[in-house]
Write a sequence for this structure.
């Protein structure tokens, strides 16, 4: 009885630590590894925050992916003075992490192809989500198109980095 209770507590602690780690990694990668581009709309910031987000989703599943994306990038918005974006980011990037993790968990097949499919689904969520967020915030249906190139670039670059890396790391995480 005691070892069963201890095992549950150890598992809960491990999940909490992993989630907190990926929230922090996503926040740091978004905040400190970014480039501002002179593009109309809000598409002028590209960052590598999607790298730890996708790693969280691919290695630890949809819940960790959603938590890393929602809280990591949502906190970035608050800490960077873009608090008005935070609720949108929380939902959009949380959905990206959840769907990417769900696809990685449930879709059979060669892992790199599954990861590419998951990144493509996350890209669609990001483009559509932020398009409508900008329409709501700016009251303009044209201006948000300027954000699409930056959104595509940051998700595609993250996918190129993560897809081969996640396959190698997944073997190690299963050993833990």
């Amino acid at each position: 009885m005691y070892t069963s209770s201890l095992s549950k507590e150890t598992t809960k602690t491990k999940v909490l630590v992993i989630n907190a780690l990926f929230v922090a990694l996503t926040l740091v990668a978004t905040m400190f590894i970014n480039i501002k581009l002179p593009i109309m709309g809000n598409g002028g910031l590209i960052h590598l925050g999607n790298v730890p987000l996708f790693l969280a989703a691919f290695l630890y599943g949809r819940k960790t992916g959603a938590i890393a994306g929602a809280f990591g990038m949502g906190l970035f918005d608050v800490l960077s003075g873009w608090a008005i974006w935070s609720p949108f980011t929380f939902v959009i990037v949380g959905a990206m992490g959840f769907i990417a993790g769900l696809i990685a968990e449930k879709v059979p097949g060669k892992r790199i192809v599954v990861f590419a499919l998951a990144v493509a689904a996350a890209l669609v969520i990001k483009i559509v989500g932020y398009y409508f967020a900008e329409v709501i915030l700016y009251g303009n249906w044209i201006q948000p198109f300027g954000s699409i190139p930056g959104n595509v670039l940051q998700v595609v670059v993250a996918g190129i980095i993560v897809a081969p890396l996640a396959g190698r790391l997944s073997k190690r995480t299963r050993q833990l």
Remarks:
- The first strand starts at residue 34 and ends at 36.
- The chain has one domain: 2-31+40-167.
- The chain is about 80% helix and 5% strand.
